[in-house]
């Protein structure tokens, strides 16, 4: 197999798994709109262009004469590689900022200048015939090709120095990934220049590096995002003070009740909360709510209890019949009424198809029990 065909095979293989990597990163979390995700996708897309143009440049070498297309694809393959190096630096800077790490954009701007000069030199040397030389109907790297390849190496090596000096602020994961990003392509480039006669091993190495970057950094970011979303979903459904389900989950539970499901609904309202707040402070009032939440959750099961407002709690559970529901409610009343009633309680039983009636009836009975409590104790009611 000719060297050119083997090089094309390597480039296309690298291109294939880089495309898979790009779409995997794109599909993994399309809802995430962070800068690091956008930067990683842009960086990977740029490298895909570098691989495409490099494979096309090698394909042109199979033609027995030098063409303008051969020159064009070779030049732009170098340019895309230099742009990708700049994007990697901005990717790391963006990632660090998202983790509340104070980093300056100076390395990014320096990379733009250095690689901008590299791109200008690439175009200049290509136009003046110093980037490539025609030999045997092929374009071969000229004496100045090595200078062009130094610009991305200088930028990422400079970044590595910066990253190592700030490893405590940036974290071990970013430092390790940067070292790999520098080491693998640099090793490939050295082999390519001095050992393998410009065989595109550095292109393959860089593709492998992108996969490592994704595994070590971007996939970790996606997992962290999913964990944060899970926590937010949990917080959005849980009352922070008591740990019980909140009003949103309460409405979802009502909507999920089947028309023929026989249920018992208990409305309860903590007694003397205002009196406790005014007399002993809001911390004492909060503790009263927490204590009652623990009692009602222990008695009926946490999944059946909802805190729907400041001092109002609702219990919904399946009841086989009226007598079993009454027995459960009476045991609970005895538990909270051993000295002075902790809360006023109202209960009602019915089928899911009449849920609104059951809710209204339970709430009215709770308010009647509340009136009775204040008549007996003479404590001030809240306003």
List keywords for this structure.
Rhopdopsin 7-helix transmembrane proteins; Alpha-Beta Plaits; 4-stranded antiparallel β-sheet; 13 helices
What's the arrangement of secondary structure elements?
Elements: H1 3-28, H2 35-60, H3 68-98, H4 106-127, E1 132-135, E2 138-141, H5 145-165, H6 167-170, H7 172-194, H8 201-237, H9 247-256, E3 262-270, H10 273-280, H11 282-300, E4 305-307, E5 312-318, H12 322-336, E6 343-351, H13 355-377
Helix pairs in contact: 1-2, 1-8, 2-3, 2-8, 3-4, 3-5, 4-5, 5-7, 7-8, 10-11
Which oligomerization state do the chains in this entry correspond to? single chain
What is the overall pLDDT average?
80
Describe the global form: elongated
Gyration radius, in Å: 35 Å
Query: Could you describe the largest sheet, including whether it forms a barrel?
Result: 4 strands, antiparallel
- Name of the CATH architecture of the largest domain: Up-down Bundle
Give the helix level as a range of percent: 55-70%
Number of helical stretches of at least 4 residues: 13
Domain module tally: 2
Order of helices and strands: HHHHEEHHHHHEHHEEHEH
Count all strands and give the number. 6
The CATH class of the largest domain, by name, is Mainly Alpha
Regions with little confidence, pLDDT below 50 for 5+ residues: none
CATH topology of the largest domain: Rhopdopsin 7-helix transmembrane proteins
Read across the widest sheet, the strand sequence of neighbours is 4-5-3-6
Give the structural class. Answer: alpha+beta
Quote the beta fraction. Answer: 5-15%
Task: Note the gap between the termini.
Answer: 90 Å
